[in-house]
Structure formats: structure tokens, C-alpha cells
Amino acid sequence: MRTIWITGASGGIGNAVARIFAAEGNQIALGYCRGKAKAQALAEDLRSAGADALAVQADVSDSAQIAQAYAQIESAFGGVDVLVCNAGIAQQKLFTDITDDDWARMIGVHATGTFLCCRAVIPHMVRKKRGRIITVSSVWGVSGASCEVHYSASKAAVIGLTKALAKELGPSGITVNCIAPGVIDTPMNACFDAQTMESLRQDTPLMRIGTPEDVANAVRFFASDQADFVTGQVLCADGGFIL
Q: Which of 18, 39, 42, 46 might form a disulfide with 32, Cβ 3.0–4.6 angstroms?
């Protein structure tokens, strides 16, 4: 049994990741920022199915809140064995319309948030000489997206952090890998109308929009024993969107 900390667990992908790991008998820490009701409902659902689950609030861009959240998890379950840095936000804007606050928030949630969560869990993992860190970027972090420059830049930063950290933590038996989802059917994409979603579906070689479970299965692989010799990699769970 391992302790799994999933940030952004109140969203679609986080929910699916939590359910997969809970079904395997792990202890689940459900990180959330504003989705308290959803996170608590998910925790209750997992507990009713026999899993140990705890909803933990924190803005991932705030170091004090992350330290407090990790202390809660450590008190309840012990140190974290698998970290899934899934918390994310999205925004579409012309580059010339992006404000200082827009930029700071995007970098804060994705790049700084990943850094702070990793920093919290690493000492325990180093002591155990084992651990799994799985970050979540985006296909736009790989290829870039028009009208999402700040989002693309922050997600590209997650990829750079993943690759560098994998080299640093490898001697300690810790793997660090990244998932880059494509177009996934989650509330984050609710801003797109049906016509746009259909166009994105047609642009995907597998001819369908991805599901949260598609991403969760990729996360589970990186956390599994089958991925023992895999680190520093970016897996695009995108149906071939950026081939």
C-alpha cells in the first residue's frame, strides 16, 4: 500500500486518477484549491468503497499552504510515495491581452506549483530510496498554442523541470515522468463550443476526444513497477494530436 498525493483532484483527470489508485488499495490524498465540495464528495465516495482517502486544501502556488498540506498528509498517512502534479488552470487570450496577473497566475499554478509539491515530497522519497513523481503538462507545452502563450510557456516549464529533476533524483531511485494530455473531455474544456470540439476531434488521428481515464491509465503506468526503468520521459496521451 502506497500513499498517493494528487493535486487538482477535484477536476476530471484528478478524479479519474484517484479512483484508479484507490481501487488498487492505496491511501489517497486529494489535493484541491477551490473545489472543496467535489474533493470531499470524492473522498467520501472512495472511503465508502473501502479506501483510505483524505481531502487536503492548498493553493499549489503558495509555499506555506503546500507545507501545511504535506504536514496533514504525513500525519494521516506518512510520507508520500507517489506524487501526481495535476493541478491546472486554463485561459485563452491574445498575447497582447495577457496581463501581469494572468502571466503570474499561470506560471504560479503550473511551474511554481509543481516545484513546491516536488520539494515537499522529495526528502521522504530520498530516505526510502524510492518514489514516483508524475507531472502533468499538455500537448501545448510540447508544441505551443496560439492565444495560449502563457499556458504553453508554463506547461513547457513543467517538461523542463521533469527532465532535469529526473537526472538529479535518479541516483536516489526516484523516477520523474510527465504526461502531456491532448484534448480531454473535462470541465476545463467547457469554454469550447460544440463546433470547436468537433474540429478538435477531427484533428485527432484516433478520431475521438480523450477521456480522463485515458490520462489516468498513463499516470498509473508511470507509477507502476513496469515503469521502473523509465524516467525523464514525456508521454503524450493525445490520440496522435501532435504527431
A: 39
